[in-house]
Every structure is written in C-alpha cells, then in structure tokens.
Automatic annotation (TrEMBL):
SUPFAM superfamilies listed in its UniProt record: Acid phosphatase/Vanadium-dependent haloperoxidase (SSF48317)
InterPro entries listed in its UniProt record: PAP2/HPO_sf, V-haloperoxidase
Disordered as annotated region, ranges: 312-333
Designated name of the protein: PAP2 superfamily protein
CDD domains the UniProt entry points to: PAP2_haloperoxidase
Top-level taxonomic group: Bacteria
Record PANTHER family: PEROXIDASE-RELATED, PHOSPHATIDIC ACID PHOSPHATASE TYPE 2_HALOPEROXIDASE DOMAIN-CONTAINING PROTEIN
Organism in which the protein naturally occurs: Saccharopolyspora shandongensis
Alphabetized Gene3D superfamilies for the sequence: 1.10.606.20
Length: 429
C-alpha cells in the first residue's frame, strides 16, 4: 500500500513500456495490416463483441453497479481467450477457433443473463452455420463451453453482484471534509461494497490505495475548490461553451463510452484471434480490478464532494469573510459516493493503460465515439491519453470533482491496469 498523495511504494508501478514488453508475447500490438488468418469478412470477434454489448445492455444492471457489467465482459471473454489460446488451438483450423470463441461467449453469457438465452442461441446458430460441420467445429463448441464453465466457477460468489456492490453504508458523522449524502436526492451511498469484492489479479483491494487527499486549508485544497467553484457551477459565467459541451459529453457512463473505444481497437487489430480475444478480456479484467480499488480509496478517505464543501463555505483559506453559498449547484448531478478519487478517471486511466500496453500510444486510426448524455455529438481521439485528459477536465467543469480527485483517479487506474497487464498470463493459461 502506498503512503502519501501520489507517492508510489517500491515496486508498485512499472512503466507502460515495461508492460508492453511483457505482454507482447501474450497479446501483441495492434498495427494496420492485412487480415490475419481466421479474421474474415464475417469477423467472429466483432460479431460476439456486439452480441456481448447487446446482452450486457439488456441485463437490467443498475448504473450504480457498473462494475457488474465489466465482470460479465471479463468472464465471457476470458473464457473465449482461453478457448482459442495456442495451447488448445495448436494445429487446429480457423473453424475450430471460430466455434470455440462463439461457444465460449455464448455459454458464459447464457449463464450470466439467462433472460437473453433465445437471442444468444440465435446468435450462436448464425455463427455455427458459417462453419462446416465436422470434428473442428465439434471440438470448438465443446472446448468453448468447458472454458466458460471453468471461468464461471472460479468467479462464483465474488461479491460483484449489484446487491453486494451497493451494500448498505452508514455515512460518518458530519464534519469538515467528510462525505455526506449530496443534493438533490441526498440518497444512500453507492458502490461501498465493491471494496470487499474478489479481484481478478490484485493481491488485495488496497494494493494500490492512494495516499490521503490534500489537507483542508492547504494551498492545493484552496486551489482545487476555487477552480471547481468558479468553473463547475451550473450556468457558470466563466466556463466556455466548449468546456460546457465537454462536461456534458462525459456525464455518460464510462463503461458505455469505452465499450465503443475498445470496439474500435478490436476492429482495427490485425492480430490472430487469440490476441484479439485476450485484449477484450484483459481490458475488462483490469477495469473490474480498478473499480474495486477505487471503492477502497473512496471509502478509506470519505472526502466530501465539492457541493458539500462549497455550500459550507469551507474554501480552506481561513478567511472569516468567506461567504457561504448554500445555493451553489454543480453543472451536473453529483453521484452518491465520495469525491476522492474520481471513478470516471480511474476508469479512463485504466483503459488508457491497457490500450497503450496492447496497441501502442495511439490507435491505428483515430477513434470516434458518441455520448448518451450529449445526443448527436461525436468526438475523435488520435491518442488514448487524449480521452483521459478530457475526462479529467470534464469532471471539474461538471462541478463533480476537484482536479486532485481527477488526477489521482487517473493515476490509480493506470497503476492497477499496468499491474494487471503484467500479470495477465496467469489468467490466460
């Protein structure tokens, strides 16, 4: 566990370049090239990626349990990667690989979302209809199902169901700096139980716990709160139109946004099927572990949200003339959990680290995504780090987080993800 804000303990973090070296053997990097063997016009990986997205979206998982959605992705695609890994697929035809991937994802999702069995069965039928009947198809179906059942058994009772993630939480007694339910709903805290869940690759949820946030009254605290007070207020007169649009764009769920980002990386990849399936699996494994680690840091420090601090007029400067602003309202509605670190930014930092390790610092072609909270707007990114930088700013301009909480979140996400990339071979064998 690390001590002190932004400090790293010995050996707690290696560079992204080190992660690239380690994972190049297991996963490889993305580059524009002709289609790899087994990657046809009917791309089984993209086909089942889209089926997974449709299934997860239809599962009825509440927004407060976003990590449960990443768990579904991680389980189904970890099964797929194992089913087509070289040890099992050596000497097998592309027909085997396609049947194995489709059957693995199908079997896992059918268990996780039984209400979608009819749709999943139909999707599997479509995939298998393109594969000639014979031993390769039969073995692929069998191995895919076996791997799905093994992964599911290994994740049973892991504490990532919505009820466990959102277990009841009794907030601390009100005090300066301490999180309390926020307006307008003043609802119960969410995601407090994720810190007790079983990680995929972390030794412990607290393995990369952040150091404490800035002390109340410190220079950094005053700067942070002054920035969000001016730029994050609803209808701010100093926030530019572009800043407002950016804030609105990133009100959306990061899980939803990065589903599109990862799909673009998968579509651009010209790597063999195993490496492409492994990319999807590792991405979601890292995002599960990141959200567990996020809950650990959030509920260790229980730092109050900007709306609570500003309405209490605690700018931390000791100025007796500081005027409370009991009507201060952020541009966006504050989520019901502590400020430090920002969950949007732990997600962004982790996604950036995985994609950088497995594809390089930039996609083969710029990636364009939309937003459920800014209909009709699309943004294009030429580097993975550009998304993170934008999310850091957006959550300040939304009035939801201090910049310290955003930057610390991105750091935490990167550290967890880089660790998981280094350790991923443990899950892929």
């Amino acid at each position: 566990m690390r001590k002190g804000l932004f400090k790293r303990g010995p050996g707690s973090r290696k560079s992204v370049n080190a992660a690239v070296v380690v994972m190049s053997v297991a996963v490889g990097t993305t580059a524009a090239a002709p289609l790899a063997p087994g990657q046809t016009a009917s791309d089984v990986a993209l086909e089942w990626y889209d089926t997974t997205a449709d299934t997860v979206n239809a599962a009825g998982i509440p927004a407060s349990a976003q990590v449960t959605k990443n768990r579904m992705w991680a389980i189904s695609w970890l099964a797929a990667a194992r089913a087509v890994r070289p040890e099992l697929g050596a000497g097998q035809s592309r027909e085997y690989e396609q049947a194995a991937l489709a059957s693995a994802v199908h079997a896992a999702l059918s268990d996780l979302v039984p209400s979608r069995k009819a749709e999943l069965d139909a999707a599997l039928d479509r995939s298998l209809e393109r594969i000639p009947d014979g031993p390769a198809e039969d073995r692929g179906v069998r191995v895919g199902r076996e791997q799905a059942h093994l992964v599911l058994a290994g994740r049973e009772n892991d504490g990532l169901d919505p009820a466990s993630v959102n277990m009841p939480y009794q907030p601390p007694q009100p005090a300066p700096g301490v999180w309390q339910p926020t307006p307008p709903a003043y609802g119960a805290a969410i995601q407090a139980g994720a810190r007790y869940a079983k990680p995929f690759l972390l030794d412990d949820p607290a393995q990369f716990r952040l150091g404490p946030p800035p002390e109340l009254g410190s220079e950094r605290y005053r700067i942070d709160l002054a920035e969000v007070r001016a730029l994050g207020v609803a209808g701010s007169s100093v926030r530019t139109e572009e800043q407002t649009r950016t804030a609105k764009f990133w009100e959306q769920s990061t899980q939803v946004a990065y589903t599109g980002v990862l799909r673009a990386a998968l579509e651009q990849s010209r790597q063999p099927l195993f490496k492409r399936a492994a990319m999807v699996a590792i991405f979601n494994v890292a995002l599960v572990d990141t959200q567990i680690a996020t809950s650990d840091s959030k509920y260790t420090y229980t730092r109050w949200r900007p709306v609570t601090a500003i309405r209490a007029a605690d700018d931390g400067d000791g100025d007796p003339n500081t005027t409370p602003d009991p009507n201060w309202t952020p541009e966006a509605t504050t989520p019901l959990h502590p400020d430090y670190p920002s969950g949007h930014n732990t997600y962004a930092g982790a996604a950036e680290a995985v994609l950088t390790a497995l594809t390089g610092v930039r996609p083969a072609e710029p990636v364009t995504i939309g937003s459920s909270t800014a209909p009709g707007e699309f943004r294009t990114y030429a580097k993975w780090s550009e998304l993170t930088a934008e999310v850091v700013d957006a959550r300040v301009w939304s009035g939801l987080h201090t910049r310290t909480a955003d930057e610390a979140g991105a750091l935490l996400g990167r550290e967890v993800a880089e660790h998981d990339v280094r350790m991923a071979s443990q899950l892929l064998r």
